[in-house]
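hi support,

uploading two proteins for the ticket. first:
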Amino acid sequence: MWIVLGFVGAAWLLGGLGSSNDVGIGPGDRATRCEPAPRVLLDAIESRLRLDILSLRDGFVVRSDDWPAIWFVAAEIDGSGLEQRGNVGVWVTDDASLGAGAVLAVNYLARGFSGGADANDARGLSMNNDGAREAQLCEQLR
């Protein structure tokens, strides 16, 4: 019995069992790529939402390997009619720290609730670019 417990403990310590990475992000991605989005960035995005009754919960940012100067931002959109989890908007920015850079809507929820430019129209960016789905998945797995 102690041998089995030792094996399970060793596997857990090495990240083989009970890891949040086992649900599809890929080995180490959540730990190395998803970072908490600074509140100032979320506030900047929130200020661009079309309805004052909408807000953003804490979100995640992921730097794109396709465009190293680009960060994808994912956050839960809350508001009347959006009480259930899963309403994750995805935006892209060139300034993930201060929220002072350009912010463009990427997925359909972000486009539907945000004012301003669409990332696909403005820069050819979409959910197919590296980092977009990872950011969305990190927020969904919260």
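and the second one:
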Amino acid sequence: MDTYDYQNEIGFINEMETKIDTLSEGEAKEVSEFIDTLKKKTVQEQTSHSLEWLKIAILPALRAYAKKTCSLLIIEEAHESVIMATLKNDIGYDVTENSGFIKMLFNLANYVGIESEDEKTCIILVFDSANLVL
């Protein structure tokens, strides 16, 4: 059994509120700027971590699905936080109750496009790791 106890967080938050209430205007501005810088750094680190997670967890599932459906799979890093995956084949795609991976990927993707290109059926999935940040 795992237990996660965050009950002590309330005392810390109350202590921080008390400290903030005693800051001068200049100190408050400086603290605010520090918080902005810290948040930006945290989001960048989380985005980078989420991108690595996408590469480790999602790309193997996409490769397996491409193999199963006799598809061409094209992976592009469209931006520092965005991965675009395009699946193409000549026979189309059936998504059934046994298609767990692709249904999961459809839900996780920020964009899903289904189209026809050069008589091939294409599925385009866009994953933005910045949107996976809590």
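thanks. also noticed: The two ends are 25 Å apart (CA to CA).
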